[in-house]
User: Which sequence fits this backbone?
């Protein structure tokens, strides 16, 4: 106990460490934060002395203070390498924004903008005007508006048309999206009385007609973009459903989910229904996402008949679901890229990654194979592998895109694979792959900054043999 107390007395005081701390530390974090970090480092040092550890030096305490400050003030949303093979990975942020969208958002952050101000009339304006014309031109709709995501778009549309009234929907279209978020729950929150028709695998036009009545507010059609029912199936197409709705004097709300503005077959993928096609098929309202196949920031678009969009905009809920100037600037810039379809894949990261040739990815894998092998050490075998990338975010769930990557397998012991994955996640710029066939597969389809990845591999190698590390 005497030695312990002696060790405690040897610890420098908070005032002493504050005097020895470099001025840059105060400039970066502020005196209060630095003081708190130093107190924390001294408290930790006391506990370590009680456990028999040697007395930490002033330099060690200041270093530990800096580490704690770095950890506290660094963003958890730091960049990482998405090598999962899922291009639009919901957990990793979905679409990467185009440079034009990034520049537009940055400009809106830096300066005041005419968000709701008409420069010609010197009067208050509408924020939707910045994208309304573009959306109408690109989709063929009479009018358009925007909210913060597609779930909000469906919620707002149904609340406007079916609050306290019935909304008819096929049982086979009552989808659940990520995070156990279900369409019936959205309909309930919208105040719509859900009327299910048909069965899970087969719904017919007569089912919708039989359900129509005086209390019907809308018919809802949901594009089942995140799963497929195959075999003995039947569904009513949007055009026929729109005609049924029109004859009954109600509106068809068509939720496209991912919603594409481009013909995906042009880029080697099976075509998804485009928003323009959905509008042409006669839906009164079409809703779709901005951060999925469209390749922009998170947003939900509502396009369709002018009178219905006007009613949506009058809904008090619209204000609660609107987007801010930063996202609106990025949306506008993204939509403008679609005005030049010949250069769209070149300028829009989502399409560029989806259309990336397998041969290019395989060549990249060959270049990186020896570097990755050196970084992970002799306990692992690194080999080239064929991969099947997927679009993600519920789009074309059964379709894959031929890709290539690197498979890392431990030469012995399954625990080594967990330590490798943990080591890759602990890097300054984490590397996220997927586990398959007894190894960690790094699909390189989304690896666009090869130089940065090489630097990350150098960091991994500098930290020592992966298999010798202890990770929780």
Assistant:
């Amino acid at each position: 106990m005497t030695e312990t107390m002696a060790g405690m007395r040897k610890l420098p005081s908070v005032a002493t460490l504050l005097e020895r701390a470099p001025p840059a530390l105060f400039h970066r974090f502020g005196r209060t934060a630095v003081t708190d970090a130093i107190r924390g480092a001294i408290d930790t040092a006391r506990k370590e002395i009680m456990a028999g550890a040697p007395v930490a030096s002033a330099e060690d305490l200041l270093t530990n203070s800096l580490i704690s400050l770095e950890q506290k003030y660094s963003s958890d949303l730091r960049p990482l390498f998405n090598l999962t093979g899922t291009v639009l990975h919901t957990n990793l942020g979905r679409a990467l924004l185009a440079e034009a969208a990034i520049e537009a958002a940055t400009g809106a952050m830096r300066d005041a903008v005419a968000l709701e101000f008409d420069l010609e009339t010197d009067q208050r304006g509408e924020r939707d005007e910045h994208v309304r014309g573009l959306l109408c031109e690109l989709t063929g709709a009479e009018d358009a508006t925007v909210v913060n995501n597609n779930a909000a778009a469906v919620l707002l549309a149904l609340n406007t048309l079916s609050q306290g009234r019935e909304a008819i929907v096929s049982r086979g279209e009552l989808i659940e999206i990520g995070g156990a978020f279900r369409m019936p729950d959205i309909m309930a929150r919208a105040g719509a009385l859900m009327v299910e028709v048909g069965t899970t695998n087969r719904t017919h036009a007569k089912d919708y007609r039989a359900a129509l009545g005086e209390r019907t507010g809308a018919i809802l059609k949901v594009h089942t973009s995140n799963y497929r029912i195959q075999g003995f199936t039947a569904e009513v197409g949007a055009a026929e459903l729109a005609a049924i709705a029109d004859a009954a004097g109600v509106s068809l709300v068509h939720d496209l989910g991912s919603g594409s503005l481009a013909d995906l077959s042009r880029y080697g993928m099976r075509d998804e229904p485009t928003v323009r096609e959905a509008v042409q098929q006669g839906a009164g309202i079409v809703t779709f996402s901005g951060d999925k196949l469209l390749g922009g920031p998170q947003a939900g678009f509502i396009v369709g008949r002018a009178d219905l969009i006007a009613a949506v905009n009058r809904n008090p809920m619209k204000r609660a679901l609107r987007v801010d100037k930063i996202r609106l600037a990025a949306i506008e810039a993204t939509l403008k890229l679609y005005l030049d379809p010949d250069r769209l894949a070149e300028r829009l990261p989502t399409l560029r990654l989806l259309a990336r040739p397998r041969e290019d990815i395989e060549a990249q894998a060959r270049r990186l194979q020896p570097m990755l092998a050196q970084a992970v050490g002799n306990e692992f075998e690194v080999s080239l592998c064929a991969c099947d990338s997927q679009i993600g975010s519920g789009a074309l769930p059964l379709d894959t895109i031929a890709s290539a990557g690197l498979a890392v397998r431990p030469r012995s012991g399954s625990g080594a694979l967990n330590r490798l994955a943990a080591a890759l996640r602990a890097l300054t710029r984490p590397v996220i792959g997927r586990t398959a066939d007894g190894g960690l597969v790094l699909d390189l389809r989304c690896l666009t900054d090869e130089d940065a990845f090489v630097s990350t591999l150098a960091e991994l190698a500098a930290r020592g043999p992966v298999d010798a590390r202890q990770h929780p």
User: Anything to note?
Assistant: The chain has a mean pLDDT of 91. Residues 31-50 form the longest helix (20 residues). The CA atoms of residues 139 and 276 lie 4 Å apart. The first strand starts at residue 81 and ends at 82.
